[in-house]
Amino acid sequence: MAEESFWKTAPGVLTAIAGFITAIGGIVAILIQVGVIGGTADPTTPPRAEDTPIQTTVATTTAKSTSSAPPASAAGGKAWKDVEAVITPKEGAPTRMRAETVRFCFSGGAGINLDDSQDIAFEKMSKIDVLRSDVALSAGGKATVLVTLTSGATREGTITSGCDFFGQAEEGRYSLYPDRLLKIEFVR
Q: Which listed site, 7, 15, 28, 38, has its alpha carbon 20 to 30 Å from 82?
């Protein structure tokens, strides 16, 4: 009889354990996204090159190998470390920060993934306009954006509305989800 009662409760125990593990994973993801864990020790220090996602490195390397001019001169003469980002919310005043501190999503991406297929580095952009967005953190939510590249070409597509754009402004960390964002301009 003891064996029967154990086997009857084992699925319940396994379900409880799975729920607990899922809850802990969700809490960790939220803490990473808000910067409580996984951030740099000094908020004024830009992320190290080794913290940058692989797709950014690939995009930068590709640009160098296909262009005879360095990216800074092709993008208005300023080095990326000297470019300023102006983030304009739908309501409120614009916020200025060094462009190299701007990231999208808690993973710290230095660019966006358009239509779940094309990585575009912020360094290659002059502007991002949010055309429409689902509410932040809505299940499967998307935002439609228009990206203007430094070459003048444009790309329209979708990104997740469940991640925020964030960076280090003079006053401290700044964060804004696509549903509250009007545009980001990279001033060269």
A: 38
Distance CA 40, CA 107 (A): 13
- Asked whether residue 110 falls in the same domain as residue 178, the answer is yes
Strand partners, 165: 104, 176
Let me know whether 59 and 91 are in one domain: yes
The structural domain count of the chain equals 2
Residues 155 and 89 in one domain: yes
Q: Classify the C-alpha dihedral 106-109-114-119 as positive or negative.
A: negative
> CA-CA distance, 137 to 141, in Å (whole number)?
7
Q: What is the pLDDT of residues 74-121, one digit of tens each?
A: 445 789 999 999 999 999 999 999 999 999 987 667 999 999 999 999
- What is the value of pTM for the model shown? 0.60
Per-residue model confidence as pLDDT tens digits over 3-15: 556 556 766 666 6
3: containing domain: 1-38
Contact 178, 145 (CB under 8 A): yes
